[in-house]
Amino acid sequence: MINHVAAALLGGVMAIPFAHGTPTPLVPQRYGDFDRYVLALSWQTGFCQEQHDHNRQETDECRLQKEQDDKRAFLTVHGLWPGLPKSIAARGVDEKRWMRYGCATRPVPNMPEARVGKKCDAAQTGLSLEAAARLSSVMPAAGGTSCLERYEFAKHGVCFGFDPDAYFTTMVRMNTEVKQSPLGEFIAANYGKDVSRKAFDNAVAKAFGKQNIQAFTLICSGNPAYLTEMQISLNAATINAPLNAASFAPQPHPGNCGKQFRLDDVGYW
Predict the structure, then answer these.
(1) Residue in 78, 149, 177, 229 annotated catalytic
(2) Distances from the Cα of 221 to the Cα of 50, 52, 65, 249, angstroms
(3) Which of 88, 107, 192, 258 has minimal Cβ neighbours within 10 Å of its Cβ?
(4) 152 is known as an active-site residue
(5) From 50, 152, 177, 229, active-site residue
(6) Three-state DSSP class for 111?
(7) 54 included as an active-site residue
(8) Could you read off the pLDDT of 73-102 as tens digits, one per residue?
(9) Could you say which of 50, 61, 149, 156 is catalytic?
């Protein structure tokens, strides 16, 4: 089981994404004929506010959430979702069914379904202790009573034959790269403030190029709106390279955040 890591480790991961050697590349062993991934990053304070607004049982990671000196720490990892492989689409599977069931999709891959309300029933991932520690620093719902990493691997990783360390450390690396970019600086500078979508898009353009604004789908909740997640479309062919202008792929929907939204701070309204 993954244990939550102290705030000091957050700083260590931010500064040194990979402390020892070259990370194992992320390579699908099966169903590798897909062209993109979606990197889902939560704005953790907004996620917790949304849970509160919908009267859901407070999770440990929200109950224990505290202020951080580096506000980029609240940009956390949700998951990394491979797109629909052509070989699976050829069996009559569409995008909606693929995103709903992932590795449990019938007729293939037809693996055990991971259920949102029973994440800890999913199989252990096989993560090494070192990779688990890195992941815990940026995925607050990993391990404990939430088991997000089990759910994500069961739904989006296991049917591809991904090495679990490669799968999760790729998320950690890209989360760090976003945080250390001008977009991360923009988020930190506007913590607890209302921002315009135009200003957010300008930060994306400064970080990764104007042509990549369409790679970012922003998810908001509430009225007035606050950010809960960003979903970033990535070229599958470049997944093992540092994020750069060629890493991104446009997606058709910008999300539901509208012209203005809040980068919520710790605590509930």
Answers:
(1) 78
(2) 7, 11, 19, 25
(3) 107
(4) yes
(5) 152
(6) coil
(7) no
(8) 999 999 999 999 999 999 999 999 999 999
(9) 156
